[in-house]
């Protein structure tokens, strides 16, 4: 199965409009420079990059996702969600970073918490690999894009009231995130995620994510009390 | 002459725009003054526009043609909100002085807070204004005229819903689905989608937040009523 979709992705990439990575890097570097000048503090810069990513990921999902394929692939059980992430998590990375990433998924809770780690292939160039000021992590943009894209998928599938997803950078080599059922206690989901990756919510908390998703995309995510 | 108002700031900080917003009747020139530029406003107010040039500041401090009554030091919210140290002595010479953050409509909450902290550090009154939206201009004018201490507004709460980072135009599908039910919100947004207006512009037209419009656009997209989203530069 995975070999088939990798082949399909390569074919799709070969026949769709493409652009040299340098162009994307120049534009992205300009955006990061502007945000860095405006915000100054690296933590504020990372948060703004994340917010920009949320919006960009949502737009990309709307413009590029084949809604019928999303509906066919979506199976709302942990095993089905795992497979869904494997296909669409890789596809998104392939479209924007230009290569099929290494992707690991894991069911953290059978009731509906699935973990994913998307790692870049070392040595491959990508738009987000620009020299940034100290403390600025451009993968926050990528993580935000995955968060915005995943939430938009939920909306396209009509399950935005049933699932929640959040993504963060993975130590400079990719991103990680989770899909969780909304009927689970958010505090419990947060604890499960923290036990898998303690620093996950360090810069952008659960409630920060909820606020950003609400103000940019109009999602109403349950907040931690 | 009852009052001399100095408006000082680096190039591009919005000096001319602010003067025009404060005194619309003045024939303001939107070019950087060679040394400084003087306007005679009504009610005995003389407005002096001072660019961020060291020689101008030295000249005005060494041989002041008038006693400065009110000094405004402008900082641009799209740049680092730091007071220009070269202009500071001129503004500090005035008995009534303030730091003015311009382009408030483009300002992030962090830059507003940083500018406010900078004003506090320099012992200046603080105003945040937008000549585009008019926000903060009447309060600044009142302060210039009466000298009354400004009431600091709770800026974070007052900010309008943030505009999308990159605005997009929802393009309606040329062949919308024949059988689909739309909610009243979806109908209203779809009606506003003409292939030219962006999400922010539609939000403004409908009196909703851009996020709320985006949410409805997503649903229209999934139902096949919107074909694509085109990025658009909206200023």
Strand order of the largest sheet of chain A: 1-2-4-3
Helices and strands of chain B, in order, run as: EHEEHEHEHEHHEHHHE
Largest sheet of chain A: 4 strands, antiparallel
Report the CATH C-level class of the largest domain in chain B.
Answer: Alpha Beta
Percent of residues of chain A in helical segments?
A: 55-70%
CATH architecture of chain A: 2-Layer Sandwich
* Full CATH superfamily name of chain A: Trafficking protein particle complex subunit 3
Low-confidence residue ranges of chain A: none
Low-confidence stretches of chain B: 153-160
Binned strand content of chain A: 5-15%
How many DSSP H or I helices of chain A? 8
Taking all Cα atoms into account, the compactness measure Rg of chain B is 23 Å
Greatest chain-chain contact: A-B, 26 and 26 residues
Mean pLDDT of chain B: 84
Sum up the overall morphology of chain B in one term. Answer: elongated
Biased composition (Pro residues) (chain B): 162-177
Region (Disordered) (chain B): 152-184
InterPro entries (chain B): P-loop_NTPase, WH-like_DNA-bd_sf
């Amino acid at each position: 199965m995975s070999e088939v979709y990798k082949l399909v992705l390569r074919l799709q990439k070969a026949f769709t409009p493409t652009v040299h990575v340098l162009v994307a890097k120049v534009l992205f570097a300009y955006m990061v420079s502007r945000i860095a000048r405006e915000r100054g503090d690296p933590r504020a810069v990372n948060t703004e990059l994340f917010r920009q990513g949320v919006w960009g990921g949502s737009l990309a999902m709307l413009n590029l996702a084949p809604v019928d394929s999303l509906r066919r692939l979506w199976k709302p059980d942990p095993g089905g969600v795992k497979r869904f992430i494997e296909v669409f998590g890789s596809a998104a990375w392939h479209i924007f970073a230009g290569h099929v990433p290494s992707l690991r998924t894991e069911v953290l809770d059978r009731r509906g918490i699935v973990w994913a780690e998307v790692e870049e292939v070392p040595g491959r160039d990508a738009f987000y690999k620009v020299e940034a000021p100290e403390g600025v992590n451009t993968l926050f943009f990528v993580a935000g894009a995955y968060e915005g894209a995943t939430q938009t998928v939920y909306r396209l599938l009509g399950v935005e009231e049933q699932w929640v997803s959040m993504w963060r950078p993975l130590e400079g080599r990719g991103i990680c995130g989770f899909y969780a059922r909304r009927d689970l206690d958010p505090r419990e989901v947060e604890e499960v995620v923290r036990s898998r990756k303690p620093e996950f919510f360090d810069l952008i908390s659960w409630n920060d994510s909820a606020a950003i998703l609400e103000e940019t995309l109009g999602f109403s995510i349950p907040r931690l009390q | 002459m009852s009052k001399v108002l100095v408006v000082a700031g680096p190039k591009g900080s919005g000096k001319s725009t602010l003067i025009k917003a404060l005194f619309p009747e003045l024939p303001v020139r939107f070019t950087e003054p060679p040394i400084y530029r003087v306007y005679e406003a009504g009610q005995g107010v003389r407005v002096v526009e001072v660019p961020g040039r060291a020689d101008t500041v030295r000249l005005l401090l060494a041989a002041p043609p008038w006693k400065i009554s009110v000094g405004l030091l402008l900082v641009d919210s799209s740049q680092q909100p730091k007071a220009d140290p070269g202009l500071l002595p001129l503004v500090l010479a005035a008995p009534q002085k303030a730091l003015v953050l311009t382009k408030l409509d483009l300002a992030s909450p962090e830059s507003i807070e940083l500018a406010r902290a900078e004003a506090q550090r320099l012992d200046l009154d603080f105003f945040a204004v937008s000549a585009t939206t008019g926000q903060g201009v009447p309060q600044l004018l009142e302060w210039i005229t009466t000298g009354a201490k400004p009431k600091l507004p709770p800026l974070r709460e007052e900010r309008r819903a943030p505009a999308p980072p990159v605005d997009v135009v929802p393009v309606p599908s040329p062949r919308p689905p024949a059988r689909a039910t739309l909610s009243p919100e979806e109908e209203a947004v779809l009606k506003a989608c003409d292939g030219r207006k962006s999400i922010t512009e539609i939000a403004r037209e409908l009196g909703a937040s851009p996020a709320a419009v985006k949410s409805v656009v997503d649903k229209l997209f999934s139902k096949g009523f919107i074909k694509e989203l085109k990025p658009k530069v909206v200023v």
